[in-house]
Amino acid sequence: MTTTRAINTFKALTFDCYGTLVDWESGIYNNLRPLYQQLDDSHPLKNDRLGLLRAIVRHEGLVQTANPTYLYHTVLAEAYGNLAAELGVAADQEAKAEFGYSVGSWPIYPDTLDALTRLHKHFKLVIISNVDLDSFKRTLEKQFLGFPFDAIYTAQEIGSYKPDLRNFQYLIGHCDKDLGVKKEDILHTAQSLHHDHVPAKQIGIASAWIERGEEVESVMGGDPKEYEERVAYSWKFKNMKEMADAVDAAAAKSA
């Protein structure tokens, strides 16, 4: 849903976490090393970071769609095993489990914590993530250093994965119930066009696109040309620092 209101007039920012605040792609790719190291040098995916990421995203989506109540670490483990089978390389149960529980080691982007601290002066900050509670707790402790988000909602408690509209219905209902924030005062902030901006438009909440992919080309965000008719974000920022700068500027202008 597009809007012309000032960005600082919303009451809550709801974040996709992994991809927007956490460097999902680096975390995933680094933990795929045991698979791609087994590939012959002549294999087309041996040194193809984007190709491997697209492959694991595809397998992750298939597992989530077929098993919407699986915990995220199980989804990752299954996707890892299925990718290994597709590549014709070995992945035992221990390797699959290790990949599934790697979430807490995925790094946040360098601008994330400072941007969140600045944005928290203006908004309630809410996580709506496709991970399970234990995985997010490890990220919160190790990467966010205990940052005080106002609410955290995960696929585990919702029982489905984004882009399922049930996740956004849950988000809207609980922002109202838990924080007193109405639907029209939510600004959904995310990188993934597929997982976040398509359903945001469908359900009628405003959104801001955090593009990422500044240093290394990104897979998670998506091609805006491909999604042109299906998304309606009102702001586009390269990173979270840009967004925090824009909010501070809007707040100063309206003061």
From TrEMBL:
InterPro entries, sorted: HAD-like_sf (IPR036412), HAD_sf (IPR023214), S-2-haloacid_dehalogenase (IPR051540)
Hydrolase found in the keyword field: yes
GO terms, molecular function: hydrolase activity
Record's keyword terms, sorted: Hydrolase
Domain of life, source organism: Eukaryota
Protein name, entry field: Haloacid dehalogenase
Organism: Trichoderma asperellum (strain ATCC 204424 / CBS 433.97 / NBRC 101777)
